[in-house]
Amino acid sequence: MIDVDSEGAIRTVTIDRPARRNALTEAGLEALERAIAGSDEPIIALRGAGPAFCAGADLSVVAELERDGAEAFARLGQRVARRIEDSDAIVVAEIDGPARGGGLELALACDVRVGTPDSTYGEPGATFGLFGAWGGTVRLPRVLGEGDALEFACTGRVVDAEEALRMGLLSRIEAEPRAVSEELAANETGALAVLKRRIRDDADRETQERREAEAFGELVDAHTGSLEGLLE
Asked: InterPro entries given for it (predicted)?
């Protein structure tokens, strides 16, 4: 269900279950977590096989769960999303086709979200009496703001790539999302991991600024003797 391929600085992680629009079971989530955790590459590209990015949780599995099992399934999805968010790698969601429910929630945990012009986005859970529980109620208001997050999730409406970009669900629209992963990989990748840690730091301002200065000093020290060429 999860395919992994590495080329240079980029690890490509593909959710490969196109017959189910790449919907994830417990086994699929666990395999996805292993694929993210096992990466030594500085860039991870997360994508879906076939015409969809990811439909989220496999509802045929959810329908068989009782309360405790449903809670455990939600906790597993949350854990995978945190694994994506906390990875040292820059994780790029390469989105083509529909990203729905948990699929959108996994994309929200990524550092960069790139969609094709044909990609679409929605949190449809409320339309059938549920909601996305893989960290969506935490991350969605961070991205959209509380009011827009409530409207988007509670209506269950689907938005196209242009509206997703305007709302902040997307970082960029590209016909070939891989171009952005390659653009990132062309940089000094050691600095990327530092930038991710600093930008995601949620400590108080004084602590953030101290850590920023320390990280800058470490990077300059690591590049002693190699920065002069930048002045030419």
From this structure: ClpP/crotonase-like_dom_sf, Enoyl-CoA_hyd/isom_CS, Enoyl-CoA_hydra/iso
Question: What is the per-residue pLDDT across 153-207, written as a single tens digit (0 to 9) for each?
Answer: 999 999 999 999 999 999 999 999 999 999 999 998 889 999 999 998 999 999 9
- CA gap 135, 153 in Å, rounded: 13
* d(C-alpha 55, C-alpha 99), whole Å: 6
Distance, C-alpha 115 to centroid of its chain:
12
- The residue segments making up the domain with residue 221 are 188-225
The helix or strand, by DSSP H or E, that contains position 162, with its residue range, turns out to be helix 161-167
Q: Are residues 67 and 144 in the same domain?
A: yes
Q: Are residues 202 and 109 in the same domain?
A: no
Residue 225: CB atoms within 10 A of its CB come to 6
Please report, for the chain, how many H helices and E strands are present, in that order.
10, 9
Same domain, yes or no, for 205 and 135?
A: no
E strand or H helix at 114? strand 112-115
CA dist., res. 3 & res. 46, Å (int) = 10
What is the CA 151 to chain-centroid distance, rounded? 22
Both 127 and 201 in a single domain?
no
Whether residue 212 sits in one domain with residue 157:
no
